[in-house]
């Protein structure tokens, strides 16, 4: 029996959470709603069984709370994803933990970070074309095989997830962490791998200008990846909160802009022309070459589309939600690029671990909570930016 | 800031009328206090005339008539006179105006405007308002320090009769001072009649400095004379002399009787104020000195000729003569 | 005879004194011993302005009467001061309208067909048709708008003429139509000693290329003050440019001066000295102040912006600029000059709701800075009213508000440039060019109603002399964030401000309050 936070099927709670966060006041209290209204519960349940060969039990040391988790709990995430989940499941996919069984290449007791994607190898199906080419995040067999549907660890009923005392993982998911990398950096490896992946999704020309919308975990790590892995010119970061501005500065942002002033400020630095439509936000004729949308909101994507110059690229890094006017996409002939999880057959993850060691990421994991204080933890995570935190994590062992 | 604190701040250093003290360093830069003529046109509207008539009948006249014993003579001379006219009277007391207004026939009383010193009566707003409503007063500039155009001409044009005190001020001691030219000039330029009035006993009843008549219902007389009409080509100064003589003659009637005064006037024995000389109302130029009337006879004997010669009569003696009760020497105990 | 200006010593008998504070005003009790500079009483206006104008046109100084300068077939350009003068705008009919109408009557009588009217707005925003109509009057507007009544466009390079360089190497580039005219008639209002004279044509019709030679930090730091032309490096530059312009084109200048009737009778107390307020003034003070506070912000702004001053005209003089301007200046001095003995440690200024650049617009923080440290601080001759290293205390709420149409470059200047530095020299060298040549600002300046991109820099330079001179700048009632952004401090009350000033000027500083508007020019001995 293990202690776990479980997301279960409850249409009433789901709709209540969704309805509440859709309102203006509810949107401000999404932390409270995630903690109290959403269909979450703290349970003692059977530890997940090993589905077969090549699997190991993992005890999480730290397990981060991701924006997509919050989106799920508050009902804001798209119903599109529902077939790729299986209820009830234990969330948590940003995990640094310890293996409990020997698997090939990873001896028992290793400190590992998890690539959460449950692709063909884990499912025991014949390799789909994506897994064969090393792009596991695009796996087509995500609902098939020996374990139940679930796009990642933390959305699958059979594997368990990070927000518990134990879960199971396939050998292909494991990345051993060097001893020099402390837990509170290692837990950032998964989101950092996503950021690395998103940066690699587009060709960033040398000296081109980029804007990153949002300076939460995704935004900051995208900035890090962009600076470290590309030859980008100026990078502007739209950041809401004071501490985000400092961190972005430390990671090499050219300038940090408040959200309400983004269009105007970017207009000036790119010497573009700004126009104000009768309804909707201002936009630029001219603008930046590439924009990374890292907020996971419709507003962020809308802004991104209005900031990019003709022929430019908008990368959607955050899990999107809501409706967006795509007219600029059409009129300015933009590229809209999605970036999900990590790829390159584990190379993104390896780079992420390397970057996590060297980059100034101290203090990113601000607070850790035991599972028992999960309501508090979710409330904190939902308000992380305002409370001066980048990443809130569970320390399930406590 | 709350409105109370705002007002408190605003009130700081200001008196109850909202006037501020002038900062010391600002005093050399003070504006010449620019006087505005107090508007009195409202006091001549139909409503104001009615209100005034009401006040006169119910307040002014009853009070004055209850506190004094007025004797009014000569109002019959006003029969058949058509306004506007200029009433001129000697002036010794604040009782004078109420006495005249109370004794005038209604048709004149309603249509008379009283010239009042602007520096006193129109100095502050409340006094100006009261004076205007009770007496239909209009401001008269007596020192000529400012060249304000007098309202008098306009009023005459509008058909108002005027009550003027040509001496220009209440007498200090009950004696008549020389007449100023204004009233006479007005009559001559406009060609309107002048009605002389003489008041006796009002100084004794309520001299300067008192604000209520002496107890004991003192006797006062108001005598109207025959209207004087300026003759064709008559000089302003000459008309002024006629006016002064007429008033003096009426004043003398108190002592000499009607015919006696007529005779004295005809013989030119009346003392008439002129130059810088003031005279006792009703005084004769060559009368024998009596105990009370030594002053003016002495003045006469001094033989100082006419204008310019200052009177040498002691101050107390003038007051003495002015406060001599009229008629009965003793107080009446019973009403007539 | 109106009274001359004087300096009040605040004593126990002094009532609380009025301070302007943005779109509002307040009473303030100044510490005992403080000095207060009052302007001369408003001079009587000319009764028959039209006759005075006619007389001026027919009896000009240093040139032939205007009708003799007009010939059939000539090119005549009438240039007039733009929206930034006077402040607040004067009640219609504007004196410019009266003058232009008479000039046009004379031109018509002489058979002049080619007449163009140009607003001398330099890098200011264009005047809207309604604003033009208000300035020149219905008749002129209907006859000339839009083809022959225009705003000057300093970015229309086809219609600019580079006349050459002065001996100091300053480019002189002005409006081509004006430069190629047979006669320019310049219609001016000289509200402060800064305007008019050589400034009229050389600034009003110039381009950025020409303006940058005198609108810069160096020149403004050496203009002490820019309201005292003989001691103003900026005016020396104007004069040199004017000299060059005179070689090319004949300019017939008509200069007017106004009295100090700055506020309409409903707010007459603003024109009066506080101890002379009667009950009516006090009642209207309370009523107007209260109503002003209760009004919604938008309505309040609309009401303030729609007030027009019942200015009287104190002088109309025409002819050769060099001969006219001294007379004009003496008229300005007659109305505004007050002699002050010595400088003080602390200067207090109440900043009003309007400055030259927010007519029918919003007074943004940069404009507050330029009004306070530029215009008000420089309302002096000889020496500033506050000593070197002293403290200036301003009354203004300094709200973080910008007019999105009129002041687009101001927003960027405030949000991005000032966050980096407030040092005028650094801003000038690093960013001026970038703002001045930004195509979007140029587009908005030319086609919308925006101030030129470089204009916020000029505003900042305007205060450069004060920034160098002052030890500290404190805004009473100022928004903490916006004042801090500009490198100033804010205080809630005067007492707090004086407390803050202690570090700089000690605990018992001498204080001078410049009581304006109505405008006062302090002649500090």
TrEMBL record, chain A:
User: What SUPFAM superfamilies does the entry give?
Assistant: GroES-like, NAD(P)-binding Rossmann-fold domains
Q: Required cofactors, per record?
A: Zn(2+)
Q: Where is the Alcohol dehydrogenase-like N-terminal domain?
A: 52-179
Keywords linked to the UniProt accession:
Oxidoreductase
The Alcohol dehydrogenase-like C-terminal domain covers which part of the protein?
218-357
InterPro entries noted in UniProt: ADH-like_C, ADH-like_N, GroES-like_sf, NAD(P)-bd_dom_sf, Zn_alcohol_dh
Name of the molecule in the record = Zinc-binding dehydrogenase
Q: In which organism is this protein found?
A: Actinoallomurus oryzae
TrEMBL record, chain B:
One family name in Pfam for this protein: Acyltransferase
PANTHER family per the UniProt record, alphabetical: 1-ACYL-SN-GLYCEROL-3-PHOSPHATE ACYLTRANSFERASE (PTHR10434:SF11)
The record's listing under SMART domains reads:
PlsC
State the CDD domains in the record: LPLAT_AGPAT-like (cd07989)
Q: Where is this region: Disordered?
A: 273-321
Alphabetical UniProt keywords: Acyltransferase, Transferase
Do the record's keywords include Transferase? Answer: yes
Ranges of Basic and acidic residues compositional bias? 285-299
State the protein's name.
Phospholipid/glycerol acyltransferase domain-containing protein
> Domain Phospholipid/glycerol acyltransferase spans what residues?
85-202
The record's annotation in InterPro entries points to:
Plipid/glycerol_acylTrfase
* Species: Actinoallomurus oryzae
Question: Which first-to-last residue range defines the signal peptide?
Answer: none
From TrEMBL, chain C:
Residue intervals of the LarA-like N-terminal domain: 37-225
Which Pfam families does its entry note?
A: Lar_N
Q: What is this protein called?
A: LarA-like N-terminal domain-containing protein
Output the lineage of the source organism: Bacteria, Bacillati, Actinomycetota, Actinomycetes, Streptosporangiales
């Amino acid at each position: 029996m293990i202690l776990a936070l479980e997301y279960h099927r409850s249409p009433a709670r789901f709709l209540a959470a969704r309805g509440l966060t859709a309102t203006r006041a509810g949107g401000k209290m999404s932390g409270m709603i995630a903690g109290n209204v959403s269909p979450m519960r703290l349970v003692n349940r059977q530890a997940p069984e090993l589905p077969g060969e090549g699997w190991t039990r993992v005890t999480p040391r730290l397990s981060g709370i991701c924006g997509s988790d919050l989106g799920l709990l508050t009902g804001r995430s798209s119903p599109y994803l529902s077939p790729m989940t299986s209820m009830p499941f234990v969330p948590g996919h940003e995990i640094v933990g310890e293996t409990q069984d020997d698997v090939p290449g990873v001896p028992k007791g290793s400190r590992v970070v998890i690539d959460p994607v449950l692709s063909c190898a884990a499912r025991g199906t014949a390799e789909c074309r994506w897994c064969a080419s090393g792009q596991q995040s695009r796996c087509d067999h995500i609902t098939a095989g020996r374990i139940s549907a679930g796009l990642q660890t933390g959305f699958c009923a059979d594997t368990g997830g990070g927000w518990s005392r134990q879960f199971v993982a396939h050998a292909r998911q494991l990345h051993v962490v060097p001893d020099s990398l402390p837990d509170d950096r290692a837990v950032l490896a998964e989101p950092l791998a996503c950021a690395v992946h998103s940066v690699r999704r587009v060709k960033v020309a040398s000296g081109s200008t980029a804007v990153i919308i949002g300076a939460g975990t995704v935004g900051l790590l995208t900035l890090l990846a962009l600076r470290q892995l590309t030859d980008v010119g100026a990078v502007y970061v739209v950041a809401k909160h004071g501490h985000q501005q400092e961190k972005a500065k430390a990671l090499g942002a050219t300038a940090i802009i408040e959200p309400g002033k983004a269009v105007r400020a970017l207009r000036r630095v790119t010497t573009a022309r700004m126009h104000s439509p009768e309804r909707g936000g201002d936009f630029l004729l001219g603008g930046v070459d590439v924009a990374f949308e890292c907020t996971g909101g419709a507003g962020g994507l809308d802004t991104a589309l209005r900031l990019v110059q003709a022929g430019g690229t908008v990368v959607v890094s955050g899990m999107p939600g809501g409706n967006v006017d795509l007219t600029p996409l059409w009129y300015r002939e933009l590229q809209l690029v999605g970036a999900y999880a990590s790829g390159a057959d584990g190379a993104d993850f390896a780079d992420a671990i390397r970057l996590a060691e060297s980059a100034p990421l101290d203090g990113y994991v601000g607070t850790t909570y035991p599972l028992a204080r999960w309501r508090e933890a979710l409330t904190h995570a939902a308000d992380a930016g305002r409370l001066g935190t980048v990443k809130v994590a569970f320390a399930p062992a406590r | 800031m709350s409105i109370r604190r705002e007002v408190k701040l605003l009130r700081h250093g200001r008196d109850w009328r909202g006037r501020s003290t002038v900062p010391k360093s600002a005093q050399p830069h003070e504006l010449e206090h620019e006087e505005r003529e107090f508007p009195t046109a409202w006091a001549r509207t139909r409503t104001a005339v009615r209100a005034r008539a009401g006040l006169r009948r119910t307040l002014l006249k009853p009070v004055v008539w209850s506190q004094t014993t007025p004797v009014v003579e000569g109002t019959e001379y006003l029969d058949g006179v058509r306004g506007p006219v200029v009433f001129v009277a000697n002036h010794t007391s604040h009782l004078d105006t109420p006495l005249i207004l109370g004794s005038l026939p209604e048709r004149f009383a309603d249509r008379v405007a009283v010239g009042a010193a602007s520096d006193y009566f129109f100095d502050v707003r409340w006094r100006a308002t009261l004076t205007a409503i009770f007496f239909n007063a209009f401001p008269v500039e007596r020192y000529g320090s400012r060249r304000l155009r007098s309202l008098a001409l306009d009023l005459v044009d509008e058909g108002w009769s005027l009550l003027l005190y040509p001496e220009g001020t209440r007498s200090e001691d009950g004696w008549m001072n020389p007449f100023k030219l204004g009233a006479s000039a007005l009559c001559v330029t406009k060609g309107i009649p002048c009605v002389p009035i003489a008041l006796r006993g009002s100084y004794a009843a309520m001299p300067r400095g008192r604000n209520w008549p002496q107890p004991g219902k003192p006797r006062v007389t108001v005598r109207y004379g025959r209207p004087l009409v300026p003759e064709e080509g008559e000089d302003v100064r000459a008309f002024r002399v006629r006016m002064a003589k007429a008033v003096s003659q009426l004043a003398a009637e108190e002592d000499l009787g009607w015919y006696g005064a007529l005779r004295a006037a005809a013989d030119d024995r009346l003392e008439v104020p002129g130059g810088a000389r003031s005279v006792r109302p009703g005084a004769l130029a060559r009368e024998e000195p009596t105990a009370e009337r030594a002053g003016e006879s002495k003045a006469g004997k001094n033989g100082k000729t006419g204008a310019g010669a200052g009177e040498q009569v002691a101050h107390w003696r003038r007051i003495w003569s002015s406060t001599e009760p009229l008629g009965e020497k003793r107080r009446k105990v019973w009403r007539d | 005879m109106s009274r001359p200006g004087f300096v009040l010593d605040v004593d126990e008998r002094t009532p609380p004194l009025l301070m302007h504070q943005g779109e509002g005003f307040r009473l303030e009790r100044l510490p005992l011993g403080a000095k207060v500079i009052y302007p001369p009483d408003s001079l009587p206006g000319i009764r028959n302005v039209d006759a005075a104008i006619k007389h001026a046109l027919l009896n000009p100084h240093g040139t032939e009467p205007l009708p003799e300068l007009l010939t059939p077939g000539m090119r005549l350009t009438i240039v007039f001061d733009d929206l930034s003068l006077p402040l607040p705008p004067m009640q219609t009919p504007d004196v410019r309208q009266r003058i232009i109408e008479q000039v046009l009557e004379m031109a018509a009588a002489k058979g002049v067909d080619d007449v163009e009217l140009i607003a001398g707005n330099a890098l200011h925003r264009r005047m809207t048709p309604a604003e033009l109509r208000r300035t020149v009057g219905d008749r002129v507007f209907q006859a000339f708008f839009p083809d022959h009544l225009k705003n000057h466009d300093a970015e229309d390079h086809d219609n600019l003429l580079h006349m050459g360089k002065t001996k100091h190497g300053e480019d002189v580039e002005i409006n081509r139509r004006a430069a190629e005219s047979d006669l320019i008639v310049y219609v001016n209002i000289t509200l402060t000693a800064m305007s008019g004279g050589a400034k009229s044509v050389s600034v009003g019709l110039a381009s950025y290329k020409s303006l940058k030679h005198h609108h810069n930090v160096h020149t403004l730091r050496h203009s002490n003050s820019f309201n005292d032309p003989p001691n103003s490096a900026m005016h020396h530059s104007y004069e040199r440019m004017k000299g060059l312009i005179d070689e090319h084109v004949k300019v017939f200048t008509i200069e007017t001066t106004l009295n100090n009737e700055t506020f309409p009778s409903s707010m007459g107390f603003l024109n009066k000295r506080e101890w002379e307020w009667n009950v009516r003034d006090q009642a209207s003070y309370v009523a107007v102040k209260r109503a002003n506070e209760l009004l919604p912000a938008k309505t309040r702004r609309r009401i303030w912006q729609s007030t027009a001053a019942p200015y009287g005209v104190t002088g109309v003089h025409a002819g050769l600029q060099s001969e006219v301007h001294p007379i004009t200046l003496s008229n300005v001095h007659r109305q505004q000059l007050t002699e002050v003995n010595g400088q003080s440690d602390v200067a207090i200024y109440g900043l009003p709701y309007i400055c030259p650049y927010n007519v029918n617009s919003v007074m943004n923080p940069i404009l507050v800075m330029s009004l306070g440290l530029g215009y008000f601080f420089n309302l002096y001759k000889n020496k500033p009213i506050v000593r070197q290293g002293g403290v200036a205390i301003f009354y203004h709420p300094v709200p973080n508000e910008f007019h999105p149409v009129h002041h687009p470059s101001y927003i960027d200047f405030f949000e991005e440039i000032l966050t980096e530095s407030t040092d005028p020299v650094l801003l000038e060298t690093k960013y001026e060019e970038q703002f001045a040549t930004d195509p979007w600002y140029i587009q908005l300046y030319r086609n919308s109603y925006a101030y030129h991109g470089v204009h916020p820099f000029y505003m900042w330079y305007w205060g450069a002399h004060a920034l160098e001179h002052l030890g500290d700048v404190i805004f009473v009632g100022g928004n903490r964030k916006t004042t801090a952004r500009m490198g100033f401090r804010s205080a809630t009350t005067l007492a707090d401000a004086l407390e803050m000033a202690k570090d700089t000027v000690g605990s018992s500083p001498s204080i001078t309050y410049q009581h304006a508007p109505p405008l006062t020019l302090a002649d500090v001995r």
